[in-house]
Design brief:
three-stranded antiparallel sheet, mainly alpha, two-stranded antiparallel ribbon, about 200 residues, 7 helices, elongated
Length: about 200
């Protein structure tokens, strides 16, 4: 390779390194912060000036006065964002049946009656799913009403206020973001604590 060719290669490398390594990311980040500030910052929720949750990641909640997310199989604790993943237990594995049975017992102990929506007893593939079905939320509203002393009818209105449509209007089902739902519920209850961890 000639000296001239080597020089051209080095100059091109430096130009594209600056252009694609610095200028482009800065431009995209700056534009995102101007147009979509909530999403660009990670869709984070604050309470009393402190970051307490992200709309994109479920929170481990066992407080019966709050809505519970889908079951999570992440290691260390449920909804652990550093350990995303499902249980990888197949439908013929006895452990799956055992897990579902134990979840049904917990739900039944709060006065809920089967049949339960699948997302109440089966986890998501990521273990971080922030959404639950409308049926799941409505069934949980009975328990939440009992333990929070908020009328069931008010909770139903809150659920439908937070229903999100299908992706692009055609993919998936209508759903409720359980993190957002709990954030609004805590504002109603004037609580400064988001969760009671398992």
């Amino acid at each position: 390779m000639s000296a001239k060719s080597l020089k051209n290669v080095v100059v091109l490398f430096v130009i594209f390194f600056i252009l694609l390594g610095f200028l482009y990311p800065l431009a995209v980040t700056g534009l995102a912060n101007i147009l979509f500030p909530f999403q660009a910052s990670g869709s984070l929720y604050k309470m009393d000036g402190k970051i307490v949750a992200s709309k994109l990641i479920c929170q481990p909640v066992s407080d019966p006065a709050l809505f519970w997310p889908r079951p999570s199989s992440t290691s260390s604790y449920p909804c652990n964002p550093l350990s995303s993943g499902g249980s990888n237990i197949g439908p013929t594995n006895k452990e799956l049946v055992k897990n579902i049975d134990s979840r049904i017992k917990v739900l039944s102990s709060y006065g809920l009656k089967a049949p339960f929506p699948s997302d109440m007893v089966m986890g998501s593939g990521s273990g971080l799913e922030p959404y639950i079905s409308i049926e799941n939320a409505l069934m949980q509203a009975k328990r939440v009403s009992q333990y929070s002393n908020i009328p069931y009818e008010k909770l139903v209105k809150l659920i439908y206020k937070n229903v999100e449509g299908r992706t692009f209007g055609i993919f998936g089902e209508k759903r409720v973001n359980v993190v957002k739902l709990n954030m609004e519920l805590l504002k109603w209850k004037k609580k400064d604590r988001f969760q009671k961890v398992y």
